[in-house]
Amino acid sequence: MIAIVLLGPPGAGKGTVAEVLAEKGYTHVSTGQLLREQIQQGTQLGLEAKKLMDQGAFVPDDVVVGMIRSLLEEANPEQKFLFDGFPRTLSQAEKLDELLESLNGTLGEVILLECPDHVVVERLSGRRTCEKCGTIYHTKYNPPKTEGICNLDGAPLLQRPDDKEETIKNRLEVYETQTAPLVSYYQSHGLIHSIDATQPIQNVRKAVLEKLG
Ligand code: ADP
Ligand code: AMP
């Protein structure tokens, strides 16, 4: 079992890169998407997560680690995982190391998508997501063929409630305090590979694919 981590601020393009890697045999795991599915299903976990997510705060570590634990414990030994939005705190990173060790898995690479705040703000403000399949668009940088409609399944495109300007600001602060320390954590393990995520989508995808061979 191998895990690759996509690290970077909200809006850096983790989900956008993950879409192509999913075509290359990686199992894409977005903890944000898993939580949004819980919200859609109206579960207790979803109800509690929504309050935090709408403010741009994190869901508690044990909830997120619990979701990842179940996934990894049910995986087959050959599976290649691509984590997008996990880990997001040092405690989550340590739990991931423990989990992988207990399952004879390896953390192969941590790809850091570097992107300054002003770029992130513009990307998040224009992000639209298919309400059915989760495909990610941007009104300017990756528009759908028909405005407001997903190219793949014709479902409506929605703006996420946490992509409002006030919430974006809060999410960037939370990233700086809680997630940015993971860069030195993974640097000290010799696992970080940085990519300039301000390039156009195709170039970022190509750079990541080249890195992962
Ligand atoms: P993350 O998963 O890191 O939060 P997303 O992949 O959802 O980020 O991308 C955020 C927004 O930016 C989306 O609207 C996406 O279409 C757009 N986007 C992603 N990568 C790029 C890029 N390299 N150039 C321009 N826009 C991008
Ligand atoms: P994302 O789809 O990755 O932008 O995540 C959306 C939101 O889900 C985040 O702002 C958090 O509230 C929550 N979330 C996603 N992943 C995690 C995580 N690993 N730890 C804590 N909260 C998370």
SSE arrangement:
Layout: E1 2-7, H1 14-22, E2 27-30, H2 31-41, H3 44-55, H4 61-74, E3 80-84, H5 90-102, E4 106-114, H6 117-126, E5 127-130, E6 136-138, E7 157-158, H7 165-179, H8 181-188, E8 192-196, H9 201-212
Parallel strand pairs: 1-3, 1-4, 2-3, 4-8
Antiparallel strand pairs: 5-6, 5-7
Helix pairs in contact: 1-9, 2-3, 4-5, 6-7
This protein binds adenosine-5'-diphosphate and adenosine monophosphate (AMP).
The site of adenosine-5'-diphosphate has 21 residues, from α1, α6, β6 and α9.
Task: Characterise the protein shown here.
The chain has 9 helices and 8 strands. The protein is an alpha/beta fold. It has a domain at about 1-115 and about 180-210: P-loop containing nucleotide triphosphate hydrolases (Rossmann fold), CATH 3.40.50.300. A 5-stranded parallel beta sheet has the order 2-3-1-4-8, with helices on both faces. A 3-stranded antiparallel beta sheet has the order 6-5-7. Strand 5 (about 125-130) and strand 6 form a beta hairpin. The mean pLDDT is about 95. Adenosine monophosphate binds near residues 35 and 57.
What labels describe this entry?
binds adenosine monophosphate, 49% helix, single chain, 9 helices, 213 residues, 8 strands, alpha/beta, binds adenosine-5'-diphosphate, five-stranded parallel beta sheet, three-stranded antiparallel beta sheet, Rossmann fold
Average the pLDDT over all residues and give the rounded result: 96
How many beta-strand elements?
8
Helix content: 40-55%
Rounded to an integer in angstroms, the radius of gyration calculated over CA atoms is 16 Å
β-strand percent reads: 15-25%
CATH-defined superfamily of the domain at 2-115 and 179-211:
P-loop containing nucleotide triphosphate hydrolases
Strand order of the largest sheet: 2-3-1-4-8
Bound molecules: adenosine-5'-diphosphate, adenosine monophosphate
* Major β-sheet profile: 5 strands, parallel
